[in-house]
Structure formats: structure tokens, C-alpha cells
Amino acid sequence: MSTASASTRLRQIALYGVSRGSTEGLLAARGLVLAAVLGPAAFGAWTLFRLAGRYLGLAELGIRRGLEFEVAKAGDDAREHDEGSGGTDTPAVRSGRAAVGFLGLVFGSIGVLALVASFVVADPLTALALRVLALTVLAERLWLYGLTYMRSTGSLRSFAILETTSAALHLAFTTLLALRWGLGGAFAGFALAIVLSLLLLRRRVPLRPSLSSEATRRMLRVGIPFGLTIGMSMALVTVDRLVVAAYGGTVLLGYYGFAIAISGMAASGAWVVRTVVFPDVYRTAGKSGGATAVSDLLKETLTPFVVLYPVLLGLVALFIAPAVTLVLPQYGEAVAPARLLIFGGATAGISSLGSIGLVAVSRQRVLPLLAGLAFLFNLGFSVWFLSMGLGITAVAGVALLSRAGYAGAVLSITTTSSGVEAAKRLTVKSLIPLAYCVGSVALLGALLPGRDWSTALISAVLYLLLVAPLLLAAHREARKVSW
Q: Are the C-beta atoms of 131 and 143 separated by less than 8 Å?
């Protein structure tokens, strides 16, 4: 990759990073406000509601990942719809309409079933949740489809504006209605925000459905392996919550869910990089071959990321305690697990960038197996540790370790499949900064257990001294790619 293109990519990452940071900040604020308004028990119920929506999303069979590949390959032709062509019948538009038709059939049926079920259950709050689900399950999938289509075309500016606007709608309506009507108001505010967000997509992406078996099969050929992977990955990153709920009920889940809400912004950095990078990787794979695409991905993106991002996350982790103590001291139990879970942003970045490389070299079918093995590790040790009374901090540690193992396995297969020299050594080197930063934060937390701002500042200074070698390494890597 040329110096000019590397610089352009850096600018795109920086600009979208600001937008994505705003989006994640708004969604994190929603979580924090709901945690304060609802209390641990009701916030645990809200967490279960959102988990149910995420698991139902698996019914799309990964078609959005297949859509990404088809639209990104189309290049400039895919942008015509977003630029006001009125929906020119390009291959990208045909793929988009086929995806809408598929989603309509699948999630329209799920919505009907949820509505019928809402009249069968006896609990009024469960009935309300099912009716909200019936209203939103298709709308949320179409909203996510629209974002997928836009980012696949490279329309980052419009995509970022819509994403942030939707997050603002969620913060406003969900929290305001929760203040008035509690958990039921939060459900209703979520539904209103989703519907309004979907309206923002009009005239920006293909929304007229079509039934095309050929286009659907083409997308599912890429998507189904990813759908299985997404399912296993979702199980991997949520099984700890389900185990906590099973052993400790919604109250303990409320504390653990709060820790996840705090650490949620960490994954946004990984998502920013993936969103900017994947169209270029897929186009390079189509023109020059998967090996070239993966080589560029590793050199220009992955290597600087794995060195620098864990350092930044560790610095943030040290300030979680005083922030929680200041704003919501009743959630003090969530501080220790949040300090660990925040590093999940680094594992998410490694695994998502590695997955892009696997698609480029047509090895995506191995992803479900890797995610399944990591899931079993997470499930088994989470149950064991909670049954031994070790608490949610131990569960968070298991969750982080299982995700790091999955990320390392994905990266190892990506580098090996693309013929990268010293592939195994590169994988190990990619995980060392993460392990070092986690260990540094844990050490400082043990030596300086105070939760005030002065302790956090002292810890931050000591942390920067400990990670100075990594910062120097990050500087060297940045100079190599001329950023």
C-alpha cells in the first residue's frame, strides 16, 4: 500500500473514530442512566431483553456479512443508490433488495410469533416485552442492514451521521420514558427509537424487497459460515452473563451488566478500524488475490493496532474506579470485572481483523469451530468458578481469556493460510502487548487498591512507565507504514 493510501486510511479511521466514539458514548450513557433509574434487578431484566434480541438476530444466517462482500466488491457502482440515482439496478442494489426480502420473510414471521406469544403469557411485563419485540425485531434488522449497506459502499460520512443520530434517539427516548414508567417505559422508548432510526434510511439504501434465490444463495454462501460464527461468537461473549443470571439472578446480573456497559466502548475502536478497512481488503482480494490483501492488512493495520490499543485500554481501565465511585457508588462491585472486560476491545479487534483476512483467502468456514471451542471453555470455567463462590471478577477473567484464545486462533489460521512468514511467531507477538497491559493493570490494582482520583493518577503514571517499551514499539510500527 502506498504512503498516500495509508495516510488516507489513517484519516478515515481518525474521523470515523470521533463519530463512533460519540455513538458509543451515547449508548453507554443510555446504559448508565438506565442502571441508575431502574436499579440492579430491573436493569438485569433489561439486559436479558437485549440479549434476547441479539440471539434472535442469529436467524438472519449471516446474510449481512455476505452483503458486505458483494457490495464491497462492486466498488463505485454500489454508491449510485446513496448518491441519488433513484435505485439504479446494479448488482449491489439487487443484492440489497434480495437481503431485504430475506429479512422480511424471516423476521416478519418471528414478529408474528412474538405477538401471538404475548397474549399467552400471564406476566404483564413479559407480555409487554414480547409485544415490543414483535414491533422491533424486523425494524432493528432492517436498520442494521441499512448500516451494513452504507458502510460497504464506503459512504462513511453518511453512515456515521445516521449511526450517531440513532444513538441520540435511543438515549433520549429510552431514558426519558424509563424515568416516567420504569422498565416498561424503557421498552417503549427502545421501540420508538428503532422505528424512528429506520425512517432515517429512506432514499439512502435499497429498501424495496425482492425474492432472488440466486442473489440470496450467493450472499448466504459467504454469510452462513459467518452466521454460525456470529452465533458462536455471541454465545462466547454472552454466556458469562447467562451463567451469572442463572447463579445470581437479575440482581447479580445487574452488577455484571453494568460492568459490561462500562467496558462496551472499548469495542468501538476495533469496530472503527474494521469498518474503514474491510472494503479495501475485499477489493484488493478480488483484484490481486487474498494473500496480497492479508499481507497489506497485517502490515498496515493489525500490527500497529495490537501494540497501541491495549495500552490505551489499560489507561482507561485505571480510571473506572473513581468514575463509578463518583457517579454510581452502588455499583462498586462492578469495578473489578469492568477493568478486565474493557480489554475485550483488543481481542475483538484482533479477531475481527483476522476474520476479514480469512474471508479474503476463503477460509471463513473454520470460524464456527474456533468460536465453539472458546465458548465451551468460557461456559465450563464460568460455571465452575461461580459454583466455587469466586464471584463475577473471576467470570470476567475467564471471559477475557476465552476471547483472547479465540482471537489468537483466528489470527494464526489467517497468517498461515495466506503464507505469511513466521506466522505462529506473529500470532504470539500480537497477543503479548495485551497480556502485558492486563497484567500491569492487575498489578497496580493490587498494589494501589484505592478508588479515589489521586490513586488513579498515581497508577496512571506508574502504568505509563511500565508500558513505555510498548509505546516505543508502537512508534516504530507507525513509522514503518508512514502514518
A: no
User: 373 is written with which cell numbers?
Assistant: 471451542
List pLDDT tens digits, range 407-458: 888 888 777 766 666 667 777 888 888 899 999 998 998 888 888 889 989 9
Q: What φ, ψ does residue 217 adopt, rounded to 5°?
A: -60, -40
Angle in degrees, CA 301, 238, 253, rounded to 5: 130
Cα(285)–Cα(293) distance, integer angstroms = 5
Shortest CA distance to 22 belongs to which of 150, 144, 163, 196?
Answer: 163
Q: What are phi and psi of 204, to 5 degrees?
A: -105, -30
Name residue, grid cell 450472499. Answer: 219
How many secondary structure helices (H) and strands (E) does the chain include?
Answer: 17, 0
The pLDDT of residue 482: 41
Closest to 149 in 3D by CA, of 87, 64, 30? 64
Residue 181 cell numbers, joined: 414508567
C-alpha cell at 292: 496480497
Average pLDDT, the chain: 76
Asked whether 122 and 178 are in contact (CB, 8 A), the reply is no
Instruction: Please write the tens of the pLDDT for every residue from 267-322.
Output: 666 666 666 666 666 666 666 666 666 666 666 667 777 778 888 888 888 888 88
Answer yes or no: are the C-beta atoms of 340 and 200 closer than 8 Å. Answer: no
Residue 365 makes CB contacts below 8 A (sequence gap 6+) with 225
> Smallest Cα–Cα separation from 282: which of 367, 371, 362?
362
CA-to-CA separations, 122 to 117, 127, 183, in angstroms, rounded: 10, 7, 17
pLDDT at 131 over 60: yes
Dihedral sign for Cα 146, 149, 153, 154, please: positive
- In 130-277, DSSP assigns E strands to none
List pLDDT tens digits, range 65-80. 888 777 776 654 444 4
Widest distance between CA atoms in the chain: 63
